[in-house]
């Protein structure tokens, strides 16, 4: 399927996103990287974003226009239809499977190719016939990981050749740096060997495994008495995790920072000795890349998209997240220096490679 490009053979892209520029979280960071890369493609003349969540006055990269966010589904859908009809677009990008029915309808009316993005758990279980038909009308589908791609192909009839893997990337601000002793002192972590997890503390996302690490820490402390656990993130599950730390008798060595801005995040990596997130439901996990690029050893699960972020062991240690002994042994090994950081290995996910991949994808739609 080809797009009828309008600007000297260059395509105008309409992107329907859940999380745009100014929003936080892994999907937002992925979307922002992808939109930035699209704006840099020679075959793209401009990208117009309609997000549900984001900042009305966000700083935008070259070639990107973002409409004011519209959180309500009905308002967002109405604005999407209006924007699509008034604009002259050549490609429609749908940033989440939950919006694919609307996106497919718009693409069909405009007679332009549809590009659908799938991230993780939303694409793992079978969807109804309406969603299936909408998805199968797409020209291409991109998935953040092989795991998500395989799960999607397991229930949909879309031809496998149309489903591409487009893994996460990371920003250049994440790089090895000296330990931030001022922040360590502020957090009460001076002289500690610190295990770090960064992620939303949501009851709906308990699969990230904060509680697994809290339960593992008493055993870790027997081998590494100066160990501590730093949890960066906010959400409705914090109180439960605080109670669990009390029950395990380790509340004194667990630190909850609450929400941390993206500009402050690299400093928090710099006070840690290890990043661990033994997840069972991660679509990919951009934070693994950020931690590895920051020079930390990394531990993740081996039953979800984390395997792609860990590059099958080249970037970090993949364990059975439900095996307490494996988790304890991996944490102890890393804190004792028996698992080394692999900041060079993560370069395969650098922005220049990501942008090249996006450019190749848009070329398939604008031939």
Q: What percent strand?
A: 15-25%
The number of helical segments is 13
Whole-number mean pLDDT = 94
Please tell me what the overall shape is: elongated
Radius of gyration, in angstroms, nearest whole number: 21 Å
Distance between the termini: 8 Å
The CATH topology label of the largest domain is: Rossmann fold
Characterize the main sheet: 7 strands, parallel
**CATH homologous superfamily assignment of the largest domain:** Glycogen Phosphorylase B
> What is the top-level CATH class of the largest domain?
Alpha Beta
Would you count the extended β strands for me? Answer: 13
Keywords:
13 helices, Rossmann fold, 2 domains, 6-stranded parallel beta sheet, single chain, alpha/beta, 367 residues, elongated, 7-stranded parallel beta sheet, disordered N terminus
Explained architecture:
Helix 3 (100-110) packs across helix 4. Residues 1-5 have low confidence and may be disordered. This protein is of the alpha/beta class and 367 residues long. The chain has helices at 26-40, 73-86, 100-110, 129-136, 146-155, 181-186, 210-223, 238-247, 265-269, 286-293, 306-309, 324-335, 351-365, and strands spanning 11-19, 44-53, 64-66, 91-94, 114-118, 140-143, 163-165, 193-198, 227-232, 254-258, 274-277, 298-301, 317-319. The strands form two sheets. It has a seven-stranded parallel β-sheet with strand order 3-2-1-4-5-6-7, sandwiched between helices. Strands 10-9-8-11-12-13 form a six-stranded parallel β-sheet, with helices on both faces. 36% of the residues lie in helices and 18% in strands. It is elongated, with a radius of gyration of 21 Å. The protein contains 13 helices and 13 strands. The chain folds into two domains: 11-169 and 350-365, Rossmann fold (3-Layer(aba) Sandwich), CATH 3.40.50; 181-347, Rossmann fold, CATH 3.40.50. The N and C termini lie close together (8 Å).
């Amino acid at each position: 399927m080809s797009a009828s490009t309008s600007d000297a053979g260059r395509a105008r892209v309409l992107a329907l996103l859940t999380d745009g520029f100014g929003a936080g979280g892994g999907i937002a960071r992925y979307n922002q990287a992808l939109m930035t890369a699209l704006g840099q493609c020679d075959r793209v003349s401009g990208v117009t974003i309609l997000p549900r969540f984001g900042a009305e006055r966000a700083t935008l990269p070259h070639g990107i226009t973002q409409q004011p966010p519209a959180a309500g589904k009905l308002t967002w859908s109405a604005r999407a239809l209006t924007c699509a009809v008034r604009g002259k677009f050549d490609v429609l990008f749908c940033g989440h499977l939950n919006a694919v029915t609307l996106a497919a309808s718009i693409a069909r009316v405009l007679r332009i190719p549809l590009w659908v993005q799938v991230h993780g758990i939303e694409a793992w279980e079978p969807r109804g016939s309406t969603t299936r038909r909408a998805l199968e009308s797409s020209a291409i589908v991109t998935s953040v990981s092989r795991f998500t791609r395989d799960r999607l192909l397991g229930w949909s009839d879309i031809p496998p050749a149309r489903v591409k893997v487009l893994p996460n990337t990371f920003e250049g601000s994440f790089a090895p740096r000296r330990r931030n002793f001022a922040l360590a002192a502020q957090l009460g972590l001076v002289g500690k060997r610190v295990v770090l997890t960064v992620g939303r503390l949501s009851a709906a996302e308990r699969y990230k495994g904060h509680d697994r690490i809290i339960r593992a820490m008493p055993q870790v402390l027997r081998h590494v008495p100066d160990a501590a656990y730093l949890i960066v993130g906010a959400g409705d599950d914090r109180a439960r995790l605080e109670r669990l730390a009390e029950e395990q008798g380790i509340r004194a060595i667990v630190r909850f920072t609450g929400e941390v801005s993206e500009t402050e995040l690299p400093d928090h990596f710099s006070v840690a000795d290890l990043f661990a997130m033994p997840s069972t439901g991660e679509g990919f996990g951009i934070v693994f890349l950020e931690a590895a690029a920051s020079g930390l050893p990394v531990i993740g699960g081996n039953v979800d998209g984390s395997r792609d972020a860990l590059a099958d062991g080249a970037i970090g240690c993949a364990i059975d997240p439900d095996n307490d002994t494996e988790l304890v042994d991996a944490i102890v090994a890393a804190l004792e220096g028996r698992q080394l950081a692999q900041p060079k290995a993560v370069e395969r996910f650098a922005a220049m490679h990501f942008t090249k991949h996006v450019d190749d994808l848009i070329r398939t739609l604008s031939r």
